[in-house]
Queue: 3 jobs
Job 1
Amino acid sequence: MSRPFRELTDRVGILRPLRIRDFRLLWTGMFVSMAGDGVYFVAIAWQVTTLSGRPSALALVGLAWTLPQVVFSLLGGVMADRFDRRRIMIAGDLLRLGALATIGALSISGRIELGHIYPLVAVYGVGQAIFQPSFTSIVPTIVPADVLVEANSLGQFVRPISLTVVGPAVGGLVIGLAGVGWAFAIDAGSFAFSALMILLMRARGVGERDAERSSMFDELVDGIRYVRRHRWLLIAMFAATISLLCTWGPWEALVPILIRQDLDGSAADLAAVFIAGGVGSVLAAILFGQRSRLPRRPVVILYGSWAFAMFMTAGFGVIDSIWQGMIVAFLAESGITILVIVWLTLVQRLVPGHLLGRVMSLDWMISTAGVPISFAIVGPVAEAIGVRSTLIWAGILGGLVTISFLFVPGARDPERDGTLRAAERARMFAEPSTAAG
């Protein structure tokens, strides 16, 4: 590693994890694949609204994408704690590559129909369900505890740059110049690159337990029991279920409709709204990454930033220009970024490593259980009361529900029962290990 790079990582806390070779490879691949996902979000919205302008059409695509993630996430978590996490992530990348390449080919040939899109985005969702638990649980195995906050902050720095800045910008440009099918093709290629980067990693990321000690079902039950014993985990997961039920479908299905139909926007305008949200995420991640530690009351910060982001959904219901939508997206994504950094760091620090994959998959399954329902109901609701009214009520209800869970007994246990302080003390006495590897 060059001296200028090491000096830069000494000064900028959020860059410290990049000294570690496997982390650099992991996040190089993730940057490219998430940029491809940013292309996808613009492309799928444009493709579906071109085939059908009804809100229910885009909502059904969202349902087909998220339902497999709920169904298969537990399997992905057990696999993450039992097998080589690196190979599982590669398998998830290849599934998504195949699905998106097929959508791209159909679109380029002019034969794409809504009936093709539903099953293919379902395969895409299966790939994501397999990939995500292994990705989240491999990070603490390649990054030492003394830079875990910085690693999660860097993740939330890279994620919005790729997902909501670079990706949408490329997507809008490619759709305008070459057509939507080529945007899907570029997204497919991004997953090939991600799989290659993961293949080059040295760490295998196998769960700490011997895979032959118990059955996969027994290991799944162990993970469920752990979450049940730790109420703060279960409360946050169910809070996410209700919160995302209120807001995810309206955000994903109605904002593109609002931009395209109400505001007469282009694909570039839709991309601009996504990009503004990405800028908010980047700034929030930089500020948090310089801290190198959690705030004094992390659970309060978690729920506060979370509720703020949900309330911002209502802002889309009152905008009358693209620049106003950009401000709303900027504020919303800033809050979501703070939420994700705090949540991931708490879970990675307090949950034993051999259970982390299962806990993260339970988090994904429970948290997103309301998302397919959200997509299922948002179309009929929007057609009944209007796109703007649906966004306003979704934001109000989502924010109120989220903040109310902070006051459920047990929600703030890590702040109050000493477990977080004990974990912080253990981290302080642990030998730092930020070598390049």
Note: The two ends are 10 Å apart (CA to CA).
Job 2
Amino acid sequence: MDIKQIEVTCRQLVDGYEDKGEDGVFGYGGKLNIRPPYQREFVYNEKKRDAVINTIYHGYPLNTMYWADNGDGTFEIIDGQQRTVSICQYITGVFPYMLKFFENVKDPVERSKVLDYKLTIYVCSGTDTEKLKWFETVNIAGEELTPQELRNAVYHGTFVSDAKRYFSKSNCAAYRIGKNIVTGSPIRQQYLETALKWICNKQGINDISFYMAIHQNDADALELYNYYHEVITWVESKFDVPKRTKIIKGLDWGALYEKYKNDKTLDKAELDKEITALLKDSEVTNKKGICVYVLTRDERYLGLRTFGLDIIESKYEEQKGICPICKQHFELCEMEADHIIPWSKGGKTVESNCQMLCMHCNRTKSSK
């Protein structure tokens, strides 16, 4: 690994600046790739953006930036994308600073403060592995990357480039069909991460990185998108997605699809009728678990109400510590509150429906 320090003025940086949106951003006479495949989209808010320009006008030092030397006379940003974009956008008139666009700054001294401001750049050259390892290191102190952004850095190639077309652009195909089902932001790579988790589950792969390593040089990501589309279509066929977005969005639909995709008993209208009843049931405290429950029938997903300490202590005293099933005496800490009539048969979490059972009897009873 070879690392050298250079100085670049803002004038040089903005030379040839071109923003092609999600297809790339370039500067430094067209030689600098400001948004390489592994970089996230521009996410600085207005306050941070203005802080960069304020620093320049006052002549204060900006944090060091890092570039990678591609070995052919071109470079790509490892760290400093957002500071670079802020500088270039201000000078090219994308936004004003202190209510004034740069083109309206007529004082040559003031203009020179910006254009001749010197940025400190460390340029590294070496193997891809060395450069990407450095990328992970220097970004620790910057704007935090999402896990998937880091994976994109390590495994960037034809697969990631094509996957970003489906999953990582504003209003991309994955967002359009899954926005009511999948959480997160496409440009922060969370839709891509979700799709990868789903297909890894299908293929029995425990690590997304392993899948990406295998497919790094694939010509396209069509297999990934087709599977994502398959899962979304199934969810829509079983649930009223627009109506139930609040309880549907963000669930692990990939795993649920693989387990229940061939269940012919699942009827959309019947499921929605049951969901309506569960949403109205005061015993159900975890509404987000309802969709999983109607598939799995596992009551743990519902967060059913439990008896309060006052009821527990009252029932223990009433029973004098005797378990009504095994007739043995136990300390309070050795017993558990049980619904005499279970929730599934209409039982409520009220004192008259409570009994104290020893742990063994309660768990044996619950498992029947």
Note: The mean pLDDT is 91.
Job 3
Amino acid sequence: MDSPRRLPTLSFTFLELLDRSFRVYRENFGTFVGLAALVIIPITLINGLISFSPADDLFRLQRFGTTGSQGNTALLCIAGIVPSILALVQSVLVNGLLTYMTSEYLFGRRVTIGEAYQAIKHRFSTLGCGFILLGVVLFALMIPIALIGAACFPVWAGLGLVFYVYVATFSFLAPVIVLENVDTSFGLNRAWSLGKTRFWQALGVIVVMGILGFIFGLIFGLLAGFIAQSMVTSRNLLAANVIDLTFSTIVTIFLTPLTPVALTLLYYDGRSKAEGLDLALAALDNPQARPIHIESPRPQTFLNSRDLINILALVGIAFVFAVVGGATMYALLEQFAPAMRNLR
């Protein structure tokens, strides 16, 4: 008699999810960091060359009113468009590959970077279109808020809706498109539908990773600034910029894999609790069963009462931060204003 197939744990508390994310990252450290470096370093070098190119000087000249030729205008367009394209490429490659590699590791299978690329390369265009379409949706939501908010300040509270849509959709977009058999439009709606069910957990993941990025960025930034200061005193500004870029790139490479890993685990947690994915996989007569072998449920795209409560909570939190921040800035201005008047 065959023993029943054992599935990995697909449901987690928030603390378990963070702990599991760090363990997955640690156990695949070389592969994940290697992937991040393989993608980020070339893109950083290209962006660095663009920032130090004549196009950057042309941009500054035109900013102060200098008229450029058609060739100069073309350079400016390239300098503005290329970084955006590279950022999209980086998001697709890093999020897509790390999502797949984390998913396979969760099921007990280690894959190389090359194997992951071969397995999901046909999904890259769909994922890229998903990111672009999400950007278009967010921009479309921002337009009426910006237009009406100029005359009616409370309308800016609508930014809570924009932020809610962004966090809920972005957090699940890569796992849905990479791990399920969906097209761009359906995948975007699926990501939004799933993200709503685990919004606060997704926001928690993003906040935790953001805090880690801030701490490590601050530490490495101070170190880079200390080293670069000696370069500045010797008038070697280019070397100082290179040092700063190098340290920031190192921090980015080491921290980048954490978020896709955590969001992939959150995807399985969300699907298991909301859709019974773990039970559906166990019911399949397939030892290599994955989410792609199960038909994706139709997404619920409308806003329900829980969504409205979450949005109101976001607006309230933003209001508190705005009041506290405004009071702090006012206190600082009041403190430094007399000193500024004395200097005059």
Note: The longest helix spans residues 305-343.
